[in-house]
């Protein structure tokens, strides 16, 4: 059974830090990443990381958030520093599960709430 399980969300004051973790199991994963969805808004990209460690960030989090990956553990992390109230959202982990040479399927975690108070 394929699962992506997030942890590490919570309530923090503006300027604080949180570290999210996402443990993937039941498959082989290529790219992995974090997305977020605030109330009344569409889900948006936060950061992605490839199997080789190449990263990509949304402009709004560049320089404050760091995505990293432990491929041996199929785990991806998101270190969030200098948090702002506008970072408040449900954060979702995703992963590209490799089905075969030509096909992948996108898997999602259940989400973890991050709330930043002003």
Write a short abstract of this structure.
This protein is mostly beta strands and 118 residues long. The protein has strands spanning 3-7, 10-13, 18-25, 29-37, 44-49, 55-57, 65-70, 75-80, 89-98, 104-108, 112-117. It is 0% helix and 58% strand.
- Average pLDDT figure: 96
Q: Give unreliable regions as ranges.
A: none
Shape: elongated
Number of strand elements: 11
Return the structural class.
mainly beta
Largest sheet: 7 strands, mixed
**Strand/helix succession:** EEEEEEEEEEE
Proportion of helical residues: under 10%
**Over all CA atoms, what is the radius of gyration?**
14 Å
The helix tally amounts to: 0
DSSP strand content: over 45%
Distance between the termini: 40 Å
Please, could you describe this protein's structure?
The chain has 118 residues and is an all-beta fold. It contains no helices and eleven strands. The protein has strands spanning 3-7, 10-13, 18-25, 29-37, 44-49, 55-57, 65-70, 75-80, 89-98, 104-108, 112-117. The strands form two sheets. Strands 2, 4, 5, 6, 9, 10 and 11 form a seven-stranded mixed β-sheet that branches. Strand 5 (44-49) and strand 6 (55-57) form a beta hairpin. The radius of gyration is 14 Å and the shape is elongated. The termini are far apart.
């Amino acid at each position: 059974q394929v699962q992506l399980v997030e942890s590490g969300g919570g309530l923090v004051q503006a300027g604080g830090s949180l570290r999210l973790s996402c443990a993937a199991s039941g498959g082989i994963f290529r790219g992995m990443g974090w997305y977020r969805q605030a109330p009344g808004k569409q889900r948006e990209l936060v950061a992605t990381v490839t199997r080789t460690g190449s990263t990509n960030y949304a402009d709004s989090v560049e320089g404050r958030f760091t995505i990293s990956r432990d491929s041996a553990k199929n785990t991806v992390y998101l270190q969030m520093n200098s948090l702002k109230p506008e970072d408040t959202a449900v954060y979702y982990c995703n992963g590209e599960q490799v089905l075969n040479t030509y096909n992948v399927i996108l898997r999602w975690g259940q989400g973890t709430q991050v709330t930043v108070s002003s």
